[in-house]
Specification:
Helix content: over 70%
Oligomer: single chain
Largest sheet: none
Shape: globular
Structural class: mainly alpha
Number of strands: 0
């Protein structure tokens, strides 16, 4: 049961890029809430709840996957991606509204996936934390960095194209 929870209820067992599968639920939920003009406060609350749930599941349940696979960061564990992707939208959601509702969802998804793979400092070092903490911490930092980029990119683009 712990492995099932850590895998995002099976998303981590899907073929090809399990981390991307794990990142999809928060992105889809964010996109749907944006499409239906849900208030940024409600979006933030829901994304914070997803971040907390993914974090707790990762820390509590990932050790079962580690023990079963012998891998320090098993690909099947995607609760960390759920938490990291959700933190992107929790932090940036209030700043990226507009009539093109799908752009922040798509941009946030791709920015998070890119930064999760690149692992900018200190994310790579945080992977060395024990058990589920190391699996989780780098994704939370990737989510934080993705949120910053999601907020800054449109502003920088607008300034660059105007000047």
């Amino acid at each position: 049961m712990k492995r099932l929870a850590a895998s995002g209820f099976g998303l981590g067992w899907l073929p090809l890029a399990p981390g991307s599968w794990g990142s999809l639920p928060p992105a889809i939920i964010f996109a749907l809430m944006s499409y239906f003009n849900v208030s940024s406060t409600v979006i933030t609350i829901i994304m914070v709840v997803l971040t907390l749930a993914g974090s707790v599941i990762c820390v509590k349940c990932a050790p079962a996957s580690i023990a079963a696979t012998g891998d320090a960061d098993p690909p099947e564990v995607v609760a960390d991606e759920i938490a990291g992707q959700a933190i992107t939208f929790a932090l940036a959601g209030a700043f990226v509204s507009g009539p093109i509702w799908w752009a922040p969802a798509l941009g946030g998804f791709f920015l998070f996936r890119l930064l999760d793979v690149i692992k900018p400092c200190p994310a790579r070092r945080l992977e060395k934390l024990p058990r589920g903490w190391g699996i989780l911490a780098d994704d939370l930092f990737a989510g934080l960095y993705a949120a910053i980029a999601l907020v800054l990119c449109p502003k920088l683009w607008a300034q660059w194209s105007a000047g």
